[in-house]
Design a protein that fits this description.
single chain, alpha/beta, 9-stranded mixed β-sheet, elongated, binds ligand BES, binds zinc ion
């Protein structure tokens, strides 16, 4: 799909369809729409779509009126969704050339960027392995049009395209089945991306990890015939920042989570192909950062393993020694994410990362706590938390700050080792985060539990059902705005 910017009044636009926004309680009198507002046919409610043909006064063949909700609630996140909804409405109707017209009130660079993102994200489908494509129709071009040009709009268009395409790479990877995306194949995809984008790429293989003493990560991998890898992607800015900050992004890359010996019930187990969504988000974010060039060095680390119950699998009760030197009693082999992240976090510290953000489909408990709307956020540092929450807010990736107070340490005691890998029945997402904190401290660190948000169980008007690509935009915003 071609992405373009047009500067012209709406009347002059030539396209198969031109889309405009309609707001609740704000009657639009243009193009005879007033009558439809009065009749209640157009209400302006979010994602309402009204398609009109051959509208007098317009050159475009069709006018699509997209509901944008209440004017006082409208922001770039809503615009992103409206643009996605427009594309997903028009695409199955064989409409090839779409122009999304932005009225002067919301035609800033941020708006242009969000509209482009919405369209590209809306265009993504999960039909890669379908002979008959769900939606064999392709949109050829999507243009954002503004009545009056302003400096920075072309740049915003480019930014939006880079970010959304990168988020779609994350979604593509998360959607891959585990037979087609083993740890080594995930590394291969990351290597290819790094080569294309000019990022440094490094792999730690099993032998190297043994030498280093990554016992927590290796323990998880040993039940699988697929060897584990630690994928490292490096971005370095032309000039290092004055404050010496170095951001580390760590993503859980479990290419399949059977649970291991503590095996999961078969019902729904196929979903555990997306247990590498955190790793995929780091790969997607690194792609965007390679192109957008933030002012801060960023290192992406993806511990990639398959969690299987093979003959050499680790057993409940096994004690492993992590890279940090701390010993862990593996009570439940299904709590594997925290084990691989622990070693990756320690390694990130050794690489000189001064600030860490990890993301992982870590616990079912966060889904119980927050449902599928918010990712859970945990931290040992209020300053970094503020940065991450601000980035997530601007980008419309919903996140909720969860507690991680000293008291929770009570839940994580082992008789035989320094730590158990699970707590008791209560606060499962918190004990998982506490476990990570034991390794992250004292480095400022934020943990994003995306078990409930990495996969959309239902399609939305603006997004296909399946991988969401969260939190790529938050990562990109965080790095791009580091100096602010
Ligand atoms: N990958 C799962 C968590 C998960 C659950 C992701 C649902 C996506 C959707 C994780 O490795 C896991 O199995 N966690 C266990 C931990 C438990 C054994 C303490 C869980 O949440 O049940
Ligand atoms: Zn698990
Ligand atoms: Zn898992």
């Amino acid at each position: 799909m071609q992405i373009q910017l047009q500067t012209q009044p709406i009347e002059a636009i030539e396209a198969d369809a031109v889309a405009i926004l309609a707001f609740e309680g704000k009657k639009d009198e243009r193009f005879g729409l007033g009558e439809l507002f009065d009749a209640g046919e157009i209400s302006g409610k979010s994602f309402e779509t009204t398609l009109l043909h051959r509208v007098p006064g317009l050159r475009a063949r069709r006018l699509l009126v997209v509901g944008a909700g209440k004017p006082d609630k409208f922001n770039t996140a809503e615009l992103r969704k409206a643009a996605g909804a427009a594309l997903r409405f028009l695409k199955p109707r064989s409409i090839k050339n779409i122009v999304f017209f932005l009225d002067t009130d919301f035609s800033s660079a941020e708006h242009v960027c969000a509209a482009v993102e919405g369209a590209i994200l809306g265009d993504f489908e999960t039909d890669r392995y379908k002979s008959q494509k769900e939606n064999g129709k392709q949109v050829e071009s999507f243009a954002v049009a503004v009545a009056a040009g302003a400096p920075g709009l072309e740049d915003a268009l480019r930014r939006g395209r880079i970010i959304a395409e990168s988020q779609n790479l994350t979604r593509e990877l998360a959607n891959e089945p585990s037979n087609r995306l083993t740890p080594l194949l995930l590394a291969e995809r990351a290597r290819q991306m790094a080569g294309e984008e000019g990022l440094e790429f490094e792999l730690l293989d099993q032998d190297r990890m043994k030498q280093l003493g990554m016992g927590a990560l290796l323990g998880v991998a040993q039940g699988s015939a697929e060897p584990p890898v630690l994928i490292i992607l490096r971005y370095k800015p032309a000039a290092a920042p004055h404050d010496g900050a170095h951001l580390g992004l760590v993503g859980k890359g479990v290419t399949f989570d059977s649970g291991g010996i503590s095996i999961k019930p078969s019902d729904g187990m196929e979903k555990m192909k997306y247990d590498m969504s955190g790793g995929a988000a780091v790969i997607g974010a690194m792609r965007a950062l390679a192109r957008l060039k933030p002012p801060i060095p960023v290192t992406g680390l993806i511990p990639a393993v398959e969690n299987m119950p093979g003959g050499r699998a680790q057993r409940p009760g096994d004690i492993v020694t992590s890279l940090s030197g701390k010993t862990v009693e593996v009570i439940n082999t299904d709590a594997e994410g925290r084990l691989i992240l622990a070693d990756a976090i320690t390694y990130a510290q050794r690489l000189g990362c001064t600030h860490l953000v990890d993301t992982a489909t870590l616990t079912g408990a966060i889904v119980v706590a927050l449902g599928h709307m918010n990712a859970g956020v945990f931290t040992n540092d209020e300053g970094l938390l503020d940065r991450v929450m601000h980035a997530a807010g601007v980008e419309g990736e919903k996140m909720w700050h969860m507690p991680l107070e000293e008291e929770y340490k009570e839940y994580l005691k082992s008789i035989f080792a320094d730590l158990p890998n699970v707590g008791g029945r209560w606060g499962g997402a918190i004990t998982a985060a506490w476990f990570l904190k034991e390794f992250a401290d004292p480095t400022p660190w934020v943990h994003l539990d995306i078990a409930g948000t990495a996969w959309l169980e239902e399609g939305k008007p603006y997004l296909a059902k399946g991988p969401s690509g969260i939190p790529v935009r938050t990562f990109v915003h965080l790095a791009m705005n580091w100096k602010d």
